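Reviewers asked in the last cycle whether our approach scales beyond single polypeptides. To address this, we selected a multi-component target totalling 508 residues and predicted its structure end to end. The input consisted of the following lines:
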Amino acid sequence: MARIIVVTSGKGGVGKTTSSAAVGLGLALKGHKVVLIDFDIGLRNLDLIMGCERRVVYDFVNVINGEATLNQALIKDKRVSSLSILPASQTRDKDALNKENVGKVLEELGESYDFIVCDSPAGIEAGAMMALYYADEAIVTTNPEVSSVRDSDRILGMLASRSRRAELGLEPIKEHLLLTRYSPKRVEEGEMLSVEDVEDILSIPLLGVIPESQAVLKASNAGEPVILDTESDAGKAYQDVVDRLLGETVEFRFLVAEKKGIFSRMFGG
Amino acid sequence: MADANIEFKGSSFTLSVLHLKTSILADIHADLAKKVAQAPDFFYLVPVVVNIEKITCSIDYQEVKALIEAFKFTFVGFTGAVTKEQRSLIRELGFSFVNTTKITTSAKAVVAEPSTVEKIAEAAATPAPDLYTDKVHRGQIRSGQQIYAKSQNLVIIGSVSAGAEVIADGNIHVYGSLRGRAIAGAKGHHKAQIYCQNLEAELVSINGNYWLSESMEQHWGAPAFIHLIDSELMSSKLI
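The resulting structure, written as C-alpha coordinates, was:
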Protein backbone atom coordinates (compact mmCIF):
# COMPACT_ATOMS: atom_id res chain seq x y z
CA MET A 1 0.00 0.00 0.00
CA ALA A 2 1.31 3.38 -0.98
CA ARG A 3 1.53 6.10 1.62
CA ILE A 4 -0.51 9.06 0.42
CA ILE A 5 1.02 12.26 1.74
CA VAL A 6 -0.63 15.63 1.19
CA VAL A 7 1.48 18.77 1.44
CA THR A 8 -0.92 21.46 2.52
CA SER A 9 -1.05 24.79 4.37
CA GLY A 10 -4.18 26.85 3.88
CA LYS A 11 -2.16 29.94 3.15
CA GLY A 12 -0.48 30.46 -0.19
CA GLY A 13 3.19 31.13 -0.82
CA VAL A 14 4.49 29.34 2.25
CA GLY A 15 6.43 26.69 0.34
CA LYS A 16 4.04 23.83 -0.39
CA THR A 17 5.28 23.17 -3.90
CA THR A 18 8.95 23.63 -2.94
CA SER A 19 8.44 21.17 -0.09
CA SER A 20 6.51 18.69 -2.23
CA ALA A 21 9.28 18.68 -4.82
CA ALA A 22 12.04 18.35 -2.23
CA VAL A 23 10.34 15.63 -0.23
CA GLY A 24 9.26 13.69 -3.34
CA LEU A 25 12.70 13.78 -4.87
CA GLY A 26 14.33 13.01 -1.53
CA LEU A 27 12.20 9.90 -1.05
CA ALA A 28 12.98 8.77 -4.60
CA LEU A 29 16.69 9.30 -4.02
CA LYS A 30 16.37 6.89 -1.13
CA GLY A 31 15.22 4.27 -3.61
CA HIS A 32 11.45 4.50 -3.12
CA LYS A 33 8.99 4.67 -5.95
CA VAL A 34 7.38 8.08 -5.74
CA VAL A 35 4.75 9.94 -7.71
CA LEU A 36 4.21 13.66 -7.27
CA ILE A 37 0.73 14.96 -8.09
CA ASP A 38 0.01 18.62 -8.69
CA PHE A 39 -3.50 19.31 -7.41
CA ASP A 40 -3.28 23.03 -8.13
CA ILE A 41 -5.39 22.88 -11.27
CA GLY A 42 -5.19 26.09 -13.24
CA LEU A 43 -2.01 27.30 -11.51
CA ARG A 44 0.42 24.67 -12.68
CA ASN A 45 3.67 25.09 -10.74
CA LEU A 46 5.09 21.76 -9.67
CA ASP A 47 6.41 20.92 -13.15
CA LEU A 48 8.37 24.21 -13.15
CA ILE A 49 9.96 23.49 -9.79
CA MET A 50 10.77 19.97 -10.97
CA GLY A 51 12.16 21.28 -14.24
CA CYS A 52 9.92 19.20 -16.48
CA GLU A 53 7.52 21.87 -17.78
CA ARG A 54 8.58 21.30 -21.39
CA ARG A 55 7.66 17.66 -21.26
CA VAL A 56 4.02 18.07 -20.24
CA VAL A 57 1.74 16.56 -22.86
CA TYR A 58 -1.23 15.25 -20.92
CA ASP A 59 -2.22 16.25 -17.41
CA PHE A 60 -4.20 15.16 -14.36
CA VAL A 61 -7.51 16.45 -15.76
CA ASN A 62 -7.00 14.53 -19.02
CA VAL A 63 -6.58 11.37 -16.98
CA ILE A 64 -9.66 12.14 -14.87
CA ASN A 65 -11.73 12.72 -18.01
CA GLY A 66 -10.45 9.58 -19.66
CA GLU A 67 -8.72 11.53 -22.42
CA ALA A 68 -5.36 9.97 -21.61
CA THR A 69 -4.05 7.00 -19.66
CA LEU A 70 -1.99 7.42 -16.53
CA ASN A 71 1.14 6.20 -18.31
CA GLN A 72 0.70 8.81 -21.00
CA ALA A 73 0.35 11.63 -18.47
CA LEU A 74 3.07 10.62 -16.00
CA ILE A 75 6.42 12.28 -16.57
CA LYS A 76 9.49 10.34 -15.49
CA ASP A 77 12.06 12.44 -13.73
CA LYS A 78 15.34 12.64 -15.64
CA ARG A 79 17.47 12.60 -12.49
CA VAL A 80 15.84 9.75 -10.57
CA SER A 81 14.08 7.00 -12.46
CA SER A 82 11.85 6.00 -9.53
CA LEU A 83 10.17 9.43 -9.50
CA SER A 84 7.21 10.43 -11.66
CA ILE A 85 5.24 13.64 -11.88
CA LEU A 86 1.56 14.00 -12.68
CA PRO A 87 1.18 17.63 -13.70
CA ALA A 88 -1.89 19.81 -13.21
CA SER A 89 -3.84 21.28 -16.06
CA GLN A 90 -3.15 24.91 -16.77
CA THR A 91 -6.31 25.51 -18.74
CA ARG A 92 -8.99 24.00 -16.53
CA ASP A 93 -10.16 24.99 -13.06
CA LYS A 94 -10.43 23.13 -9.79
CA ASP A 95 -13.97 21.92 -10.43
CA ALA A 96 -12.55 19.55 -13.02
CA LEU A 97 -11.73 17.06 -10.27
CA ASN A 98 -14.22 14.89 -8.47
CA LYS A 99 -13.78 12.56 -5.53
CA GLU A 100 -14.70 9.39 -7.33
CA ASN A 101 -12.33 9.80 -10.25
CA VAL A 102 -9.46 11.11 -8.11
CA GLY A 103 -9.93 8.05 -5.93
CA LYS A 104 -9.65 5.77 -8.95
CA VAL A 105 -6.43 7.46 -10.11
CA LEU A 106 -4.88 7.24 -6.63
CA GLU A 107 -5.85 3.60 -6.37
CA GLU A 108 -4.23 2.81 -9.69
CA LEU A 109 -1.07 4.71 -8.72
CA GLY A 110 -1.02 2.97 -5.37
CA GLU A 111 -0.47 -0.34 -7.08
CA SER A 112 2.91 0.64 -8.47
CA TYR A 113 4.23 3.37 -6.17
CA ASP A 114 5.42 3.49 -2.54
CA PHE A 115 4.65 7.15 -1.97
CA ILE A 116 2.04 9.42 -3.50
CA VAL A 117 2.85 13.04 -2.67
CA CYS A 118 -0.05 15.43 -3.31
CA ASP A 119 0.82 19.09 -3.73
CA SER A 120 -2.28 20.91 -2.50
CA PRO A 121 -3.47 24.29 -3.76
CA ALA A 122 -3.82 27.10 -1.22
CA GLY A 123 -7.16 27.90 0.32
CA ILE A 124 -9.85 25.71 1.81
CA GLU A 125 -12.03 25.29 -1.25
CA ALA A 126 -12.79 22.23 -3.35
CA GLY A 127 -9.26 21.90 -4.77
CA ALA A 128 -7.58 21.78 -1.38
CA MET A 129 -10.26 19.45 -0.02
CA MET A 130 -9.72 17.13 -2.96
CA ALA A 131 -5.97 17.03 -2.33
CA LEU A 132 -6.36 16.09 1.32
CA TYR A 133 -9.40 13.81 1.03
CA TYR A 134 -7.56 10.53 0.41
CA ALA A 135 -4.45 11.34 2.45
CA ASP A 136 -2.91 9.03 5.04
CA GLU A 137 -0.48 11.68 6.21
CA ALA A 138 -0.31 15.42 5.96
CA ILE A 139 2.69 17.71 5.92
CA VAL A 140 1.32 21.01 7.17
CA THR A 141 3.63 23.65 5.78
CA THR A 142 3.73 26.74 7.92
CA ASN A 143 5.71 29.97 7.99
CA PRO A 144 6.55 31.32 11.43
CA GLU A 145 4.04 34.15 11.31
CA VAL A 146 0.56 34.46 12.79
CA SER A 147 -1.61 34.38 9.67
CA SER A 148 0.11 31.30 8.30
CA VAL A 149 -0.22 29.54 11.66
CA ARG A 150 -3.90 30.45 11.82
CA ASP A 151 -4.53 29.05 8.34
CA SER A 152 -2.62 25.88 9.16
CA ASP A 153 -4.80 25.46 12.21
CA ARG A 154 -7.86 25.75 9.98
CA ILE A 155 -6.47 23.11 7.63
CA LEU A 156 -5.76 20.82 10.56
CA GLY A 157 -9.42 21.12 11.46
CA MET A 158 -10.33 20.15 7.90
CA LEU A 159 -7.98 17.17 7.99
CA ALA A 160 -9.73 15.96 11.10
CA SER A 161 -13.24 16.43 9.76
CA ARG A 162 -13.38 16.47 5.97
CA SER A 163 -11.03 13.69 4.94
CA ARG A 164 -11.97 10.19 3.88
CA ARG A 165 -10.43 8.82 7.05
CA ALA A 166 -12.60 11.13 9.15
CA GLU A 167 -15.74 10.32 7.17
CA LEU A 168 -15.22 6.57 7.52
CA GLY A 169 -14.15 6.84 11.13
CA LEU A 170 -10.74 5.34 10.41
CA GLU A 171 -7.52 6.18 12.19
CA PRO A 172 -7.04 9.94 11.69
CA ILE A 173 -4.59 11.41 9.22
CA LYS A 174 -1.08 11.53 10.65
CA GLU A 175 -0.13 15.18 10.91
CA HIS A 176 3.37 16.59 10.53
CA LEU A 177 4.43 20.17 11.07
CA LEU A 178 6.93 21.56 8.57
CA LEU A 179 8.14 25.02 9.45
CA THR A 180 9.59 26.82 6.42
CA ARG A 181 11.39 30.12 5.89
CA TYR A 182 12.63 30.01 9.46
CA SER A 183 15.12 32.65 10.50
CA PRO A 184 16.66 32.01 13.94
CA LYS A 185 18.14 35.49 13.95
CA ARG A 186 14.75 37.14 13.52
CA VAL A 187 13.29 34.86 16.18
CA GLU A 188 15.98 36.03 18.59
CA GLU A 189 15.13 39.61 17.72
CA GLY A 190 11.49 38.87 18.50
CA GLU A 191 10.28 39.54 14.95
CA MET A 192 9.30 35.98 14.19
CA LEU A 193 7.42 33.22 15.99
CA SER A 194 9.72 30.57 17.39
CA VAL A 195 9.45 26.84 16.76
CA GLU A 196 8.11 26.48 20.30
CA ASP A 197 5.43 29.13 19.71
CA VAL A 198 4.15 27.39 16.60
CA GLU A 199 4.29 23.96 18.20
CA ASP A 200 2.38 25.31 21.17
CA ILE A 201 -0.40 26.74 19.01
CA LEU A 202 -0.76 23.85 16.57
CA SER A 203 0.28 21.03 18.92
CA ILE A 204 1.25 18.52 16.25
CA PRO A 205 4.60 16.73 15.95
CA LEU A 206 7.39 18.66 14.27
CA LEU A 207 8.71 17.07 11.07
CA GLY A 208 11.24 19.67 10.11
CA VAL A 209 12.43 23.25 10.18
CA ILE A 210 13.66 24.68 6.88
CA PRO A 211 15.77 27.79 7.33
CA GLU A 212 15.19 30.85 5.17
CA SER A 213 17.69 30.44 2.37
CA GLN A 214 18.76 32.04 -0.88
CA ALA A 215 19.21 28.55 -2.24
CA VAL A 216 15.42 27.98 -2.41
CA LEU A 217 14.72 30.73 -4.93
CA LYS A 218 17.75 29.77 -6.99
CA ALA A 219 16.64 26.13 -7.02
CA SER A 220 13.07 27.02 -8.02
CA ASN A 221 14.19 29.11 -10.96
CA ALA A 222 16.59 26.42 -12.11
CA GLY A 223 13.97 23.67 -11.84
CA GLU A 224 16.27 21.74 -9.53
CA PRO A 225 14.55 20.90 -6.21
CA VAL A 226 16.55 22.43 -3.37
CA ILE A 227 17.22 19.04 -1.80
CA LEU A 228 19.74 18.47 -4.60
CA ASP A 229 21.73 21.45 -3.30
CA THR A 230 23.47 19.43 -0.61
CA GLU A 231 25.66 22.39 0.36
CA SER A 232 22.76 24.62 1.39
CA ASP A 233 21.12 24.68 4.80
CA ALA A 234 17.69 24.29 3.21
CA GLY A 235 18.83 21.27 1.22
CA LYS A 236 20.24 19.62 4.34
CA ALA A 237 17.11 20.40 6.32
CA TYR A 238 14.91 18.79 3.64
CA GLN A 239 17.18 15.76 3.71
CA ASP A 240 16.51 15.50 7.46
CA VAL A 241 12.76 15.76 6.76
CA VAL A 242 12.94 12.82 4.35
CA ASP A 243 14.88 10.76 6.89
CA ARG A 244 12.29 11.51 9.56
CA LEU A 245 9.45 10.55 7.22
CA LEU A 246 11.19 7.23 6.78
CA GLY A 247 11.18 6.71 10.51
CA GLU A 248 14.68 7.79 11.44
CA THR A 249 15.39 9.98 14.44
CA VAL A 250 17.36 12.98 13.30
CA GLU A 251 18.30 15.90 15.49
CA PHE A 252 16.91 19.28 14.45
CA ARG A 253 19.40 21.65 12.89
CA PHE A 254 19.49 25.35 12.02
CA LEU A 255 17.41 26.37 15.03
CA VAL A 256 19.87 28.89 16.44
CA ALA A 257 21.47 31.83 14.72
CA GLU A 258 25.09 31.30 13.71
CA LYS A 259 27.52 33.39 15.67
CA LYS A 260 29.57 35.37 13.26
CA GLY A 261 33.30 34.87 13.67
CA ILE A 262 35.70 37.75 13.73
CA PHE A 263 36.80 37.21 10.15
CA SER A 264 33.38 37.12 8.63
CA ARG A 265 32.54 40.22 10.62
CA MET A 266 35.61 42.03 9.30
CA PHE A 267 35.08 40.98 5.74
CA GLY A 268 31.30 41.29 5.83
CA GLY A 269 30.63 37.60 5.33
CA MET B 1 -62.39 15.76 59.35
CA ALA B 2 -61.67 16.59 62.95
CA ASP B 3 -58.84 19.02 62.26
CA ALA B 4 -60.01 20.58 59.01
CA ASN B 5 -59.66 24.04 60.54
CA ILE B 6 -56.00 23.76 61.29
CA GLU B 7 -53.03 22.10 59.73
CA PHE B 8 -49.45 21.63 60.89
CA LYS B 9 -46.82 22.03 58.25
CA GLY B 10 -43.09 22.42 58.41
CA SER B 11 -41.66 25.61 56.88
CA SER B 12 -38.28 27.21 57.11
CA PHE B 13 -37.79 30.81 58.10
CA THR B 14 -34.93 33.16 58.38
CA LEU B 15 -34.46 33.98 62.04
CA SER B 16 -32.03 36.31 63.68
CA VAL B 17 -29.73 34.47 66.03
CA LEU B 18 -28.08 36.38 68.85
CA HIS B 19 -24.75 34.78 69.70
CA LEU B 20 -23.77 35.39 73.31
CA LYS B 21 -20.07 35.50 74.02
CA THR B 22 -20.28 36.34 77.70
CA SER B 23 -22.52 35.43 80.62
CA ILE B 24 -22.23 38.89 82.19
CA LEU B 25 -25.67 40.38 81.65
CA ALA B 26 -24.53 43.99 82.04
CA ASP B 27 -22.10 43.59 79.12
CA ILE B 28 -24.74 41.97 76.96
CA HIS B 29 -27.12 44.80 77.81
CA ALA B 30 -24.59 47.45 76.89
CA ASP B 31 -23.77 45.88 73.50
CA LEU B 32 -27.43 45.28 72.68
CA ALA B 33 -28.28 48.88 73.54
CA LYS B 34 -25.59 50.09 71.13
CA LYS B 35 -26.77 47.78 68.37
CA VAL B 36 -30.43 48.64 68.70
CA ALA B 37 -29.67 52.36 68.83
CA GLN B 38 -28.21 52.08 65.33
CA ALA B 39 -31.49 50.89 63.83
CA PRO B 40 -34.37 50.83 66.31
CA ASP B 41 -37.05 50.24 63.66
CA PHE B 42 -35.18 47.37 62.14
CA PHE B 43 -35.04 45.41 65.38
CA TYR B 44 -38.59 46.20 66.56
CA LEU B 45 -40.45 42.91 67.27
CA VAL B 46 -37.88 40.93 65.35
CA PRO B 47 -37.98 37.25 66.38
CA VAL B 48 -34.70 36.26 67.97
CA VAL B 49 -33.14 32.95 68.90
CA VAL B 50 -30.35 33.12 71.45
CA ASN B 51 -27.29 30.98 70.84
CA ILE B 52 -25.59 30.01 74.10
CA GLU B 53 -22.99 27.69 72.65
CA LYS B 54 -20.07 29.95 73.62
CA ILE B 55 -21.20 30.43 77.22
CA THR B 56 -19.02 28.16 79.34
CA CYS B 57 -20.40 28.93 82.80
CA SER B 58 -24.03 29.03 83.83
CA ILE B 59 -26.32 31.86 82.88
CA ASP B 60 -29.74 32.89 84.08
CA TYR B 61 -31.97 31.97 81.14
CA GLN B 62 -34.95 33.91 82.46
CA GLU B 63 -32.85 37.06 82.82
CA VAL B 64 -31.64 36.67 79.25
CA LYS B 65 -35.20 36.38 78.00
CA ALA B 66 -36.24 39.44 79.97
CA LEU B 67 -33.28 41.38 78.61
CA ILE B 68 -34.13 40.46 75.02
CA GLU B 69 -37.75 41.43 75.46
CA ALA B 70 -36.80 44.69 77.12
CA PHE B 71 -35.30 45.70 73.78
CA LYS B 72 -38.62 44.86 72.05
CA PHE B 73 -37.38 41.71 70.38
CA THR B 74 -39.71 38.71 70.17
CA PHE B 75 -38.00 35.97 72.12
CA VAL B 76 -38.29 32.56 70.39
CA GLY B 77 -35.99 30.25 72.30
CA PHE B 78 -32.44 29.10 72.81
CA THR B 79 -30.14 27.31 70.48
CA GLY B 80 -26.57 26.08 70.27
CA ALA B 81 -24.52 23.00 70.89
CA VAL B 82 -25.03 22.38 74.58
CA THR B 83 -25.13 19.41 76.93
CA LYS B 84 -28.20 17.30 77.53
CA GLU B 85 -28.47 18.67 81.04
CA GLN B 86 -28.48 22.25 79.87
CA ARG B 87 -31.07 21.45 77.28
CA SER B 88 -33.44 19.78 79.73
CA LEU B 89 -32.97 22.66 82.18
CA ILE B 90 -34.01 25.08 79.44
CA ARG B 91 -37.09 23.02 78.71
CA GLU B 92 -37.98 22.75 82.40
CA LEU B 93 -37.89 26.53 82.63
CA GLY B 94 -40.49 26.60 79.87
CA PHE B 95 -38.33 27.79 76.98
CA SER B 96 -38.06 26.31 73.53
CA PHE B 97 -34.82 24.83 72.42
CA VAL B 98 -34.34 25.36 68.72
CA ASN B 99 -32.31 22.86 66.74
CA THR B 100 -30.46 24.05 63.70
CA THR B 101 -29.73 21.73 60.84
CA LYS B 102 -26.10 22.75 61.04
CA ILE B 103 -24.78 20.35 63.65
CA THR B 104 -21.46 20.46 65.37
CA THR B 105 -20.09 17.25 66.84
CA SER B 106 -20.95 18.12 70.43
CA ALA B 107 -24.57 18.73 69.49
CA LYS B 108 -25.14 15.45 67.74
CA ALA B 109 -26.83 14.01 70.82
CA VAL B 110 -29.70 16.45 70.55
CA VAL B 111 -30.37 16.08 66.87
CA ALA B 112 -33.25 13.68 67.02
CA GLU B 113 -35.20 15.83 69.46
CA PRO B 114 -38.11 17.64 67.80
CA SER B 115 -38.47 21.33 68.49
CA THR B 116 -40.92 24.09 67.89
CA VAL B 117 -39.03 25.83 65.12
CA GLU B 118 -36.87 23.80 62.89
CA LYS B 119 -34.96 24.60 59.82
CA ILE B 120 -36.47 21.88 57.72
CA ALA B 121 -34.78 20.57 54.66
CA GLU B 122 -31.99 22.99 54.04
CA ALA B 123 -32.00 21.90 50.43
CA ALA B 124 -35.36 23.58 49.92
CA ALA B 125 -34.02 26.92 51.07
CA THR B 126 -30.94 26.96 48.82
CA PRO B 127 -31.62 26.78 45.09
CA ALA B 128 -31.22 23.34 43.55
CA PRO B 129 -27.82 22.78 41.94
CA ASP B 130 -27.76 22.91 38.18
CA LEU B 131 -27.76 19.33 37.10
CA TYR B 132 -25.99 19.74 33.83
CA THR B 133 -24.20 16.76 32.42
CA ASP B 134 -20.86 17.17 30.69
CA LYS B 135 -20.04 17.01 27.02
CA VAL B 136 -16.40 16.00 26.85
CA HIS B 137 -14.26 16.68 23.81
CA ARG B 138 -10.79 15.23 23.54
CA GLY B 139 -8.38 17.05 21.31
CA GLN B 140 -7.83 20.52 20.04
CA ILE B 141 -10.63 22.68 18.64
CA ARG B 142 -9.13 24.19 15.50
CA SER B 143 -9.70 27.54 13.87
CA GLY B 144 -13.09 27.55 12.13
CA GLN B 145 -14.51 24.72 14.23
CA GLN B 146 -17.45 25.20 16.52
CA ILE B 147 -18.70 23.05 19.37
CA TYR B 148 -22.00 23.52 21.17
CA ALA B 149 -22.94 21.69 24.33
CA LYS B 150 -26.72 21.98 24.38
CA SER B 151 -28.09 21.93 27.94
CA GLN B 152 -24.69 20.67 29.06
CA ASN B 153 -21.36 21.76 30.40
CA LEU B 154 -18.51 21.59 27.94
CA VAL B 155 -15.21 20.02 28.89
CA ILE B 156 -12.36 20.28 26.42
CA ILE B 157 -9.25 18.23 26.98
CA GLY B 158 -7.03 20.20 24.65
CA SER B 159 -6.72 23.78 23.49
CA VAL B 160 -9.18 26.01 21.70
CA SER B 161 -7.41 27.69 18.80
CA ALA B 162 -7.81 31.28 17.74
CA GLY B 163 -10.77 31.44 15.38
CA ALA B 164 -12.53 28.49 17.02
CA GLU B 165 -15.74 28.82 19.01
CA VAL B 166 -16.92 26.81 22.01
CA ILE B 167 -20.44 27.30 23.31
CA ALA B 168 -22.26 25.71 26.23
CA ASP B 169 -25.54 26.28 28.03
CA GLY B 170 -23.62 25.41 31.21
CA ASN B 171 -19.98 25.92 32.16
CA ILE B 172 -16.94 25.63 29.91
CA HIS B 173 -13.73 23.97 31.06
CA VAL B 174 -10.67 24.08 28.85
CA TYR B 175 -7.78 21.88 29.90
CA GLY B 176 -5.40 23.70 27.61
CA SER B 177 -5.15 27.19 26.17
CA LEU B 178 -8.28 29.16 25.40
CA ARG B 179 -7.40 31.28 22.37
CA GLY B 180 -10.72 31.34 20.54
CA ARG B 181 -14.18 32.35 21.68
CA ALA B 182 -15.94 30.83 24.66
CA ILE B 183 -19.62 31.43 25.28
CA ALA B 184 -20.99 29.96 28.51
CA GLY B 185 -24.56 30.11 29.76
CA ALA B 186 -25.65 30.58 26.18
CA LYS B 187 -29.34 30.20 26.92
CA GLY B 188 -29.25 32.56 29.86
CA HIS B 189 -27.55 31.19 32.92
CA HIS B 190 -25.88 33.83 35.05
CA LYS B 191 -24.03 31.32 37.21
CA ALA B 192 -22.16 29.77 34.27
CA GLN B 193 -18.39 30.03 34.45
CA ILE B 194 -15.47 29.59 32.10
CA TYR B 195 -12.30 27.88 33.28
CA CYS B 196 -9.07 27.53 31.34
CA GLN B 197 -5.44 26.72 31.94
CA ASN B 198 -4.25 29.59 29.80
CA LEU B 199 -6.41 32.61 29.12
CA GLU B 200 -5.68 34.13 25.70
CA ALA B 201 -9.23 34.26 24.43
CA GLU B 202 -10.58 36.40 21.62
CA LEU B 203 -13.86 36.68 23.43
CA VAL B 204 -15.50 35.29 26.53
CA SER B 205 -19.18 35.60 27.24
CA ILE B 206 -21.42 34.54 30.10
CA ASN B 207 -25.18 34.98 29.87
CA GLY B 208 -24.75 37.59 27.15
CA ASN B 209 -22.13 39.67 28.95
CA TYR B 210 -18.92 39.61 27.01
CA TRP B 211 -15.29 40.64 27.13
CA LEU B 212 -12.89 41.06 24.26
CA SER B 213 -9.26 40.12 24.81
CA GLU B 214 -8.29 43.66 25.85
CA SER B 215 -10.41 43.27 29.00
CA MET B 216 -8.54 40.14 30.06
CA GLU B 217 -5.19 41.78 30.73
CA GLN B 218 -5.21 40.94 34.41
CA HIS B 219 -4.94 37.20 33.92
CA TRP B 220 -3.72 37.09 30.33
CA GLY B 221 -1.62 34.05 29.65
CA ALA B 222 -2.40 32.57 33.06
CA PRO B 223 -4.76 29.90 34.38
CA ALA B 224 -7.99 31.72 35.14
CA PHE B 225 -11.71 31.49 35.43
CA ILE B 226 -14.34 33.95 34.38
CA HIS B 227 -17.56 34.41 36.27
CA LEU B 228 -20.38 36.86 36.52
CA ILE B 229 -21.14 39.13 39.46
CA ASP B 230 -24.26 41.26 39.00
CA SER B 231 -23.93 41.39 35.20
CA GLU B 232 -20.22 42.24 35.49
CA LEU B 233 -17.68 39.77 34.23
CA MET B 234 -14.85 39.00 36.62
CA SER B 235 -11.70 37.05 36.08
CA SER B 236 -9.86 35.27 38.85
CA LYS B 237 -6.70 33.33 39.13
CA LEU B 238 -7.31 29.62 38.89
CA ILE B 239 -4.30 28.24 40.76
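Strands of chain A lie at 3-8, 34-38, 75-76, 83-86, 115-119, 137-142, 174-182, 206-211. We regard this as preliminary and will revisit it once experimental data from Aim 1 are available.
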